[in-house]
Design goal:
This protein has 7 helices and no strands. By secondary structure, the chain is an all-alpha fold. The chain is elongated and about 75 Å long. Bound molecules: heme C.
């Protein structure tokens, strides 16, 4: 009889409950750790946003060579019609890519690509600036000059003709 009684007094369920309370007591000690972790992550995020450039886009350093006469004329047309997106010296802005860039080497973007871009615009495909609008105001001679200008800049900045393999 006495053995049965003792069993009744400490049922397994009760012991589990007691253990549960003991571990619940350590809860408050964990809370500051979580608050600290959130503060550290938050500070890290703020620092990352402050140090990162405002928008992820690519501009390049361009050295300008002595330009041919045709390229100088092209540079004027470029500055008036293209530089607002492609940048001074075609170095890129937050609205358009640098054209002094390996992607635009003559093997990948032949001169006709410049004519077509000016005449018809270009759909967004290499970058994420959006579409390039057509530039119908340009005369044929201006486009030829712009191409000469871009090619002379490319050449002076080590951009070589590579066969298009894509
Ligand atoms: C309103 C902005 C804007 C103006 C102005 C602009 N472009 Fe563009 N251009 C772009 C963007 C953006 C792209 C990139 C499209 C892509 O590949 O994602 C581009 C791409 C190009 C390309 C590559 C086309 C291709 O086939 O991939 C050429 C060449 C080009 N532009 C030349 C010019 C010339 C020359 C002018 C001036 C006559 C000019 N652009 C004016 C925004 C502009």
């Amino acid at each position: 009889m006495s053995a049965d009684r003792r069993k009744e007094r400490t049922p397994p369920g009760r012991r589990t409950w007691a253990r549960g309370r003991a571990s619940a007591g350590s809860g408050p000690a964990i809370a500051p750790f979580f608050v600290g972790a959130i503060l550290v992550l938050g500070a890290g995020f703020v620092a990352w946003r402050l140090l990162a450039p405002p928008d992820a886009f690519e501009t390049v350093a361009v050295s300008v060579p002595a330009l041919s006469f045709e390229a100088q004329v092209g540079a004027q047309a470029f500055n008036a019609n293209c530089a607002q997106c492609h940048g001074v010296n075609a170095a890129g802005t937050d609205k358009g890519p640098p054209l002094v860039h390996a992607i635009y080497n003559p093997g990948h973007h032949a001169d006709i690509a410049f004519v077509l871009a000016a005449r018809q615009g270009a759909r967004q495909h290499h970058w994420s600036f959006g579409d390039m609008p057509p530039q119908p105001q340009l005369k044929d001679g201006e486009i030829t000059g712009i191409i000469r200008y871009i090619r002379e800049l490319q050449q002076a900045n080590g951009i070589e003709t590579k066969a298009h393999t894509m």
